[in-house]
Structure formats: C-alpha cells, structure tokens
Amino acid sequence: MVIEGLMLAAFPRLVERAALHLSTLPVEVRRVGGIFALATGVLLVWFVRG
Questions:
Q1: pTM for the complete prediction?
Q2: Which residues contact 22 (CB under 8 A, 6 or more apart)?
C-alpha cells in the first residue's frame, strides 16, 4: 500500500490516466495482469523475508 500511496501522491494525473486506460481493457486481460502482479508481490516478499 505504500507504493500505491506514493504513486497517488507523486503522480496523481498519471494514475488517473492509467485507471482510464485499464477500464478500456477486456476483463480477461485485467485478470491476467492482476494475477501477475499478485505473483510478483508474493515472490518479492518471499525473497526479501528469506
């Protein structure tokens, strides 16, 4: 949540444009992107925590 908050605070217009772009993508593409982001986050935490 820190990264998301930082992005919103530092680049609010960029986040807004990204959200608008995401709303135009098909649900399947958003789902795959979400699964990829989830897996990346889990792996990152796993490697950092050792």
A1: 0.69
A2: 30
pLDDT in tens, 3-35: 889 999 999 999 999 999 999 999 999 999 999
> CA–CA separation, 9 vs 35, rounded Å?
25
Structural domain tally of the chain? 1
Q: Which amino acid is at 6?
A: L
Q: What are the backbone angles phi and psi of residue 25, rounded to the nearest 5°?
A: -80, 150
Q: Which domain holds residue 12?
A: 2-49
Give the end-to-end CA distance of the chain in Å, rounded to a whole number: 21
Amino acid at residue number 47: F
